[in-house]
């Protein structure tokens, strides 16, 4: 099976998948036996093994064989994953609606934030113009 990269559409995680990813983001690397005691409630070895394999096939984990067992590690940080999910979520909205809702929400909270946003937009436009992309 071809592994998907983070650039492809980020999938939602089920509750167990999310819990396993949180464990691996905290631990860094682990085998099935290392994940089981960290779970909220005890699960069968095969259930955890299947979940790790599913996350590997989704491209979220890497794995290497060590002493006749697989050791899994996250391929992306939690922040990278959350940013990709947020990006995919926002990409599903029409641009005008998204900007309108964003500005309404920010404007109600903080005028200084709107000023900062204007500065950042101007800076970004300037960068794009220098690269000839505008």
Report on this model:
59% of the residues lie in helices and 9% in strands. Strand 1 (61-66) and strand 2 (69-74) form a beta hairpin. The longest helix is centred in the last third of the chain and has 20 residues, at 111-130. The protein is built from six helices and two strands. A two-stranded antiparallel sheet has the order 1-2. The two termini are 40 Å apart. The chain is mostly helical and 134 residues long. The chain has helices spanning 15-27, 32-35, 45-57, 78-91, 95-109, 111-130; strands at residues 61-66, 69-74. It is elongated and about 55 Å long.
Any descriptors?
134 residues, mainly alpha, two-stranded antiparallel sheet, 6 helices, 2 strands
Mean pLDDT: 85
Radius of gyration: 20 Å
Percent in strands:
5-15%
Q: How far apart lie the N and C ends? A: 40 Å
Strand order of the largest sheet: 1-2
What is the structural class? mainly alpha
Backbone shape = elongated
Q: Which spans of ≥5 residues are poorly predicted at pLDDT below 50?
A: 1-9
Helix content: 55-70%
Number of DSSP helical runs: 6
Tally of DSSP β-strands:
2
Please summarize the sheet with the most strands. 2 strands, antiparallel
Query: What sequence of helices (H) and strands (E) makes up the elements?
Result: HHHEEHHH
């Amino acid at each position: 099976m071809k592994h998907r990269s983070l650039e492809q559409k980020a999938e939602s995680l089920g509750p167990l998948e999310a819990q396993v990813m949180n464990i691996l983001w905290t631990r860094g690397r682990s085998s099935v036996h290392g994940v089981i005691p960290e779970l909220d409630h005890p699960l069968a070895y095969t259930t955890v093994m299947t979940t790790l394999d599913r996350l590997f096939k989704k491209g979220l984990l890497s794995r290497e064989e060590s002493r006749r067992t697989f050791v899994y590690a996250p391929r992306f940080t939690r922040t990278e994953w959350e940013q990709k999910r947020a990006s995919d979520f926002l990409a599903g909205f029409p641009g005008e609606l998204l900007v309108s809702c964003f500005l309404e929400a920010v404007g109600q909270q903080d005028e200084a934030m709107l000023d900062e946003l204007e500065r950042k937009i101007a800076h970004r436009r300037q960068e794009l113009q220098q690269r000839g992309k505008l």
